[in-house]
Amino acid sequence: MSRWSFDSIWPAPAKLNLFLHVVGRRPDGYHLLQTVFRFIDRADGLRFEPRNDERIVLATPLPGVAPDSDLTVRAARLLQTATGCRRGVTIHLDKQLPMGGGLGGGSSDAATVLLALDHLWQTGLGRPALQQIGLSLGADVPVFIHGRNTFAEGVGERFTDVELPAATYLVLKPPVNVPTAAIFTAPELVRDTPAISAAAWRPGQGGNDLQSVACARFPVVAEHLNWLRQFAPQAMMTGSGACVFAAFADRREAEVVLARLPAEMSGWIADGLDEHPIAKI
Fold first, then answer.
1. Pairing mode of beta strands 236-237, 150-154
2. Rounded to an integer, what distance in angstroms lies between the CA atom of residue 133 and that of residue 119?
3. Mean pLDDT in residue range 36-58
């Protein structure tokens, strides 16, 4: 029997984009991307309580987010619809990942809901079908369902898995929520970076095309990035921001830098994962 049950705390880990290039744009407006996703060991936690009705209830609503709009609730309802499942659930979310940080927290939460309830409700869809449901919720949701560190292309739905070296990451969270739409709709955003092949990519290669836009529009992101680059010149922003990060081969080096963090800045250390914590469910 699986160790995962209704009583389990199901992890929803953060991701880092080790590079992120915008290589084009589809006629429908969606941007074509290339990126490498890496999971890290900082995560939200979800617990699922069975109900005697068909309702989907979020016991821990997020400030400013209507429960019906929350990705966790939407994910569970989409799974009900796709499978004809008549079971309900109360979702308990322990939110540790910041909103608007570029760490994929909301997408990761939605993916864990789909994986967990497919298992707990025994609906049997499996990962490929769950990825299709996830893509309707957001471009980052499928990679969390996929469960592997991966080179992603298209709108984030085509994967070539990659082996990544062990690394410890120092992540800084500027005190601002960066709206993804504001970055992707910016007229100054570079949208024609030459594409590379997954086989040709190596760790440390590439940058984040969204970074200059976010830094210009949210100067506090640039401030955090500049501070971190004093110690790690390769530091960059993840996703559309606001978080910035740097990789260290030695955890002690990351701890030394974190100890020097000014009091007005917030950050933490996380280790890279080889795969999603529930990749083998």
1. unpaired
2. 15
3. 98
Instruction: Round to whole Å and give the CA distance between 105 and 238.
Output: 12
E strands, 95-209, in order: 150-154, 158-161, 168-172
- Name the phi and psi angles at 192, rounded to 5: -135, 35
Residue positions annotated with a catalytic role: 15, 140
Domains along the chain?
A: 10-161 (3.30.230.10), 168-271 (3.30.70.890)
Q: Please give the structure tokens belonging to residue 208.
A: 């984040």
Segment 170-199 mean pLDDT: 96
Mean of the per-residue pLDDT values of the chain: 96
- Give 159-180 pLDDT, tens digit per residue: 999 999 999 999 999 999 999 9
pLDDT reported for residue 2: 65
d(Cα 98, Cα 44) in Å, to the nearest integer? 10
Strands (E), 88-218: 89-94, 150-154, 158-161, 168-172
User: By the 8 A CB rule, do 194 and 23 touch?
Assistant: yes
- Helix (H/G/I), strand (E/B), else coil: 173: coil
Nearest to 168 by CA among 104, 254, 237: 254
List the Cα angle 75/77/78 in 5-degree steps.
Answer: 65
Bridge partners (DSSP) listed for residue 17 = 37
Tell me the C-alpha distance between 5 and 1, whole Å: 10
Residue 67 has pLDDT above 90, yes or no: no
Mark residue 104 as left, alpha or beta (left: phi above 0; alpha: psi -120 to 50; beta: remaining).
left
Kindly report the pTM of this predicted structure.
0.96
